[in-house]
Each structure stands twice: as structure tokens, then as C-alpha cells.
């Protein structure tokens, strides 16, 4: 039999986990600054309160093989899974790997395209965060060149 | 007998080339082309185009007048098709002018802006930024059209010749000319293909791309700035906005591009 | 007041393809100026979109999104004449909303 204190502590922990995972319903959550300022792939997941992702063929990522300039790299992420709560976009070796998170909405296809900055050649990740807290990724290596002086 | 042997070895060469192509991996050029294609839709140049259109129709300057009576070569207010006929000679200024310098003329005469001040304003700032936006929009109004710069007037011909001389003129600390980078086929700087501006196709590719949005710095560049930056890389003296040298080079390259479709405003590294 | 977005919303079958170009510096905060002082971060943090007044998109962006950001998404059910609204809000509290009619 749990004491009231234990119940509160446990639900507090659960709430924190749910908050981190962006799963609390209702009013808009505060911007997840900590996640966007996390300095490594692992730290971003920690800040989001999420487990490290597992590869899945039902998460898709389209990005060029070579980006002529790392300032603008087009990326499209999608998923054919059902029960996805949000999609994350990460660039592994960026000073802050988390690029964006899109809350999945039933009215819109689970497919988002944007352009990100890449500091150097590395892996780009699209991650599907499920309602049950599981996470799945697709990965693509993108080479970044500085390019020449013209063009 | 000898012809048969020749044919056989020729066939062999063709076969080997074919086999090589099948095994060849995607080249870096192919991948770069793919990258550029991915950026075609949603070119941030659109933002500058929209701004340019607004500026054309906005009453501005000390005289609080719009640019809608500006003559860019085909009559007051005509914007459709003017881009592919510039630079050209203008009787009111008695000069061959390119799009940007002509826009400045209109801003001065119609709207009352101070031209020398704007000429000395750094690119991307103040009214220079507005000229770039205007040029982006005007260029977009000729999308799909082929270049047909006029060479009827004596001044237009003179500037073509001057432009050709300047193109091959080696100077500066590094003995650079435009031709050093842009005078031969299949040259590149790191991964940047350098168009051969002395050929029709190359000139069309190079001349037809500017104004362009440069992803490397997120800036919109018109031809004036493009030439200015080439000169900087060549260690030449600073090319003043609207200087005759730049107009002459534009005439030379633009005339060489005759018949090629413009792609401006485009996206570039 | 920030420059307007360019929104193109096109009906394709029963779907609406939405493409947005936003005018924003998206300064990451990583760069330094000529004197070596860090240029402060200035970037869009929240992006949302509505379809005929109903929210259909809600996203958080970090400084890693490119300057003059591009966004593309597809609304599952819609038709020409519908309204798409896009809003962004940045870390300085500035925001911008633009509307487009589906063509």
C-alpha cells in the first residue's frame, strides 16, 4: 500500500516524464529549450525524456548525398507507423543536434520537409516518437562540402 | 582491310565506354545536381521577388512616386521581357545601362532619391537592398524567355568590344583575367563548376542565373555584386556600382548568351 | 514588422500541398562578429498552421533550421478556396501570421 507521499512522488516523476516526452494533453507546452540546447544526440534524448531510438523501415528520411553548402540542406521526414505522436529531426554532429520537432496531427500526412544547417558531414536522423514512448529512427549520411568561391 | 580493323577497334572502344558507364557510380557532379534540384522548389529568392514587386508599386522617395512609369527599355512601366534585353542603350541618359543601374536612374528621376549616395551604399544595405529586390522581381518577369540583347546602337557595340577586351585582360597582383576561370570548358573550383562564358551555352548559364539567392550566405546577389565579387577575387580595384567596366562585361557575356533561356532568379551556392 | 511569408497552397486530388517560405535570419548564436563577440541567437521557435481556422500543424524549431526557412506539409482533406494560415514566433517574441487561399 503506497503512502500518499509515495503516490505523489511517483505521479510527479511520471508527469515529468510525460512532460519531457511532450505527451501531456491540454494547453500548449513551453518551448523545450533544454532539448534544443542539448549538445549531443544522447543529451537531446535525455532532455526530451525519451529512450534512444531503434531503427525502423517505417520511418523515412530523404536528404541529398552531398550538400554543396551546409547552410541549407533539404530534409524530408515521414512515417508509415500508426500511433506516432511527434517527429524529430536531428543532425548528429551539430553543436545542438535537435533541429525540429513536429507534433503529429490527424489532419496532416506524417511527412514534413524543411531545410537545416549542417556544420559538417555526418548522419541525419528522422525519429518517430510513439504514443507509448517508444522511438524509431531512419538515418542518412549527408556529406557537406564548403564548395568553391563562385557559382 | 584496314577499314575493317578500324571499325572493329572503334566498336571495342565504344563497348568499353559503355561497360564503364554501367559500372560508374553517381559522380559528385550528379549528386550536386540532385542537391540543387531539391532546392529549386522554394527558392528563397521568392521572398525578394515579392518584396521587389511591392517596392515597384509603392510611392516612395522625396517625390513620393511609384516606379510604375519607369522605362526599363520597352517603354514606361513595361516590365515583361525587359530583363532579356538588358543591358541596352537609353537615349535619356545617353548610356548603355544594365537593370540595376537603370533602376537607380528611375529611383533618382521619378522618386527623387540621391543617386551618388545609393551608389556608395554597401550591397545589401538600405536602398541597395531595395535595388536588388526590384531587380529580382523584374528578372522574374522574363522567366522562360531567351536573351536577345540589342546590338544596334554604336554604344552597344562599343561596350561589347570593351567587355570582350576586359574579359581577357590579365591584371592585378595575381595576373587574373575573367578568362582565367571562365575561358575554358570543364573547369571547376573545388566542387563549383565554372561556366565557360565565351560559349553561348556557358554564357547563358552564367549570365542567366543572376540575380541569384546564395545559400552560403543567405543573400540575394544581382549581377553588379556578382561582378564586384569576381573582381575582389581577382585582386582588382573595387568595382563601383554601375561602373562602365561592369556594364561592358555584362554586354559581352549577355550578347554571347543570345538565344539561351534565362533562369533568373536562381539559387546558387 | 517582419517581411511576409510566401505561402503556396495547392489542391492535389483531395489533399492540399502547402509550401511556405519564411523571411527570417535564423541566427544560431554560434557565430561571432568581426570583433569576436558572439552574435546573439535569433530564430523561430514555434510554427503553427491552421486549415479553415482549425490547427493542423504545430512545431518547435531550434537554431539549426536554415535562414529564410522553407516548410512543406500536406493536409489530408481539403479543396480549392480553403484558407491556410501560418504563424511563426521567434525567441525575441516577434511573430508573423500570413494567410493563403488554396488554389
Could you describe the 3D structure shown?
The complex is a heterotrimer of chains A (151), B (269) and C (103). Chain A has helices at residues 4-20, 33-37, 41-48, and strands at residues 54-55, 59-62, 66-67, 73-79, 84-91, 98-103, 108-116, 122-130, 135-144. In chain A, 20% of the residues lie in helices and 38% in strands. Chain A has three helices and nine strands; from the N terminus they run H-H-H-E-E-E-E-E-E-E-E-E. With 151 residues, chain A is α+β, with helices and mostly antiparallel strands. In chain A, the strands form two sheets. In chain A, strands 1, 3, 5, 6, 8 and 9 form a six-stranded mixed beta sheet that branches. A three-stranded antiparallel beta sheet of chain A has the order 2-4-7, with no helix packed on it. Chain B folds into two domains: 2-28; 42-268, Cytochrome Bc1 Complex, Chain D, domain 2 (Orthogonal Bundle). In chain B, helix 3 (45-57) packs across helix 6 and helix 7 crosses helix 11 (244-256). The model of chain B is unreliable at 1-7 and 9-23 (pLDDT under 50). In chain C, the strands form two sheets. Chain C has a four-stranded antiparallel beta sheet, with no helix packed on it. In chain C, strands 1-2-5 form a three-stranded antiparallel beta sheet, with no helix packed on it. In chain C, strand 3 and strand 4 form a beta hairpin. The relative contact order of chain C is 0.32. Chain C has one domain: Immunoglobulin-like (Sandwich), CATH 2.60.40. Chain C contains no helices and seven strands. Chain C is mostly beta strands and 103 residues long. Chain C has strands at 6-12, 15-21, 44-51, 54-61, 70-75, 83-90, 95-101. Chains in contact: A-B, A-C, B-C. The A-C interface holds A 31-32, 36, 71-74, 76, 91, 94-103, 105-109, 111-117 and C 15, 26, 28, 30, 45-46, 51, 54-67, 69-77.
Short summary:
Chain A is an alpha+beta fold. Chain A has three helices and nine strands. Chain A is 20% helix and 38% strand.
Amino acid at each position: 500500500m503506497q503512502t500518499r507521499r509515495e503516490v505523489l512522488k511517483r505521479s510527479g516523476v511520471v508527469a515529468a516524464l510525460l512532460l519531457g516526452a511532450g505527451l501531456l494533453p491540454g494547453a500548449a507546452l513551453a518551448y523545450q529549450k533544454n532539448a534544443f540546447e542539448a549538445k549531443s544526440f544522447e543529451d537531446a534524448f535525455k532532455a526530451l525524456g525519451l529512450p534512444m531510438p531503434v531503427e525502423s523501415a517505417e520511418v523515412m528520411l530523404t536528404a541529398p548525398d552531398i550538400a554543396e553548402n551546409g547552410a541549407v540542406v533539404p530534409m524530408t521526414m515521414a512515417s508509415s507507423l500508426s500511433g506516432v505522436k511527434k517527429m524529430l529531426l536531428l543532425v548528429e554532429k551539430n553543436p545542438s543536434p535537435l533541429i525540429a520537432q513536429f507534433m503529429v496531427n490527424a489532419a496532416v500526412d506524417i511527412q514534413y520537409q524543411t531545410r537545416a544547417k549542417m556544420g559538417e558531414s555526418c548522419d541525419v536522423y528522422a525519429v518517430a516518437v510513439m504514443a507509448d514512448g517508444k522511438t524509431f529512427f531512419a538515418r542518412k549520411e549527408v556529406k557537406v562540402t564548403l564548395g568553391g568561391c563562385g557559382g | 582491310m584496314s577499314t575493317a580493323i578500324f571499325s572493329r577497334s572503334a566498336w571495342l572502344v565504344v563497348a568499353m565506354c559503355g561497360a564503364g558507364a554501367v559500372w560508374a557510380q553517381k559522380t559528385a557532379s550528379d549528386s550536386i545536381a540532385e542537391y540543387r534540384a531539391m532546392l529549386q522548389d522554394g527558392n528563397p529568392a521568392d521572398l525578394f521577388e515579392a518584396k521587389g514587386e511591392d517596392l515597384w508599386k509603392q510611392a516612395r522617395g522625396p517625390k513620393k512616386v511609384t516606379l510604375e512609369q519607369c522605362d526599363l527599355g520597352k517603354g514606361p512601366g513595361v516590365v515583361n521581357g525587359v530583363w532579356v534585353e538588358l543591358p541596352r542603350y537609353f537615349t535619356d541618359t545617353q548610356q548603355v545601362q544594365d537593370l540595376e543601374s537603370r533602376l537607380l536612374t528611375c529611383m533618382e528621376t521619378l522618386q527623387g532619391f540621391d543617386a551618388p549616395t545609393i551608389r556608395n551604399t554597401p550591397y545589401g544595405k538600405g536602398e541597395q537592398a531595395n535595388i536588388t529586390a526590384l531587380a529580382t522581381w523584374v528578372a522574374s518577369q522574363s522567366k522562360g524567355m531567351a536573351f536577345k540583347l540589342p546590338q544596334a546602337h554604336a554604344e552597344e557595340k562599343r561596350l561589347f568590344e570593351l567587355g570582350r577586351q576586359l574579359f581577357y585582360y590579365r591584371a592585378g597582383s595575381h595576373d587574373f583575367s575573367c578568362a582565367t576561370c571562365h575561358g575554358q570548358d570543364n573547369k571547376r573550383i573545388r566542387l563549383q563548376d565554372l561556366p565557360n562564358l565565351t560559349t553561348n551555352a556557358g554564357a547563358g548559364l552564367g549570365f542567366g542565373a543572376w540575380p541569384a539567392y546564395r545559400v552560403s550566405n543567405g543573400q540575394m546577389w544581382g549581377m553588379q555584386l556578382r561582378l564586384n565579387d569576381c573582381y575582389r577575387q581577382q585582386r582588382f580595384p573595387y568595382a563601383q556600382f554601375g561602373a562602365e567596366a561592369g556594364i561592358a562585361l555584362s554586354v559581352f557575356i549577355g550578347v554571347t548568351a543570345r538565344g539561351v533561356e534565362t533562369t533568373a532568379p536562381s539559387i546558387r551556392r | 514588422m517582419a517581411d511576409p511569408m510566401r505561402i503556396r497552397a495547392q489542391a492535389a486530388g483531395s489533399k492540399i500541398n502547402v509550401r511556405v517560405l519564411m523571411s527570417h535570419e535564423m541566427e544560431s548564436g554560434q557565430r561571432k562578429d568581426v570583433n569576436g563577440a558572439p552574435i546573439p541567437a535569433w530564430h523561430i521557435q514555434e510554427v503553427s498552421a491552421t486549415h479553415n481556422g482549425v490547427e493542423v500543424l504545430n512545431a518547435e524549431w531550434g537554431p539549426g533550421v536554415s535562414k529564410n526557412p522553407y516548410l512543406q506539409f500536406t493536409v489530408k482533406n481539403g479543396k480549392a478556396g480553403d484558407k491556410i494560415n501560418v504563424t511563426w514566433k521567434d525567441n525575441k517574441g516577434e511573430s508573423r501570421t500570413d494567410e493563403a487561399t488554396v488554389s
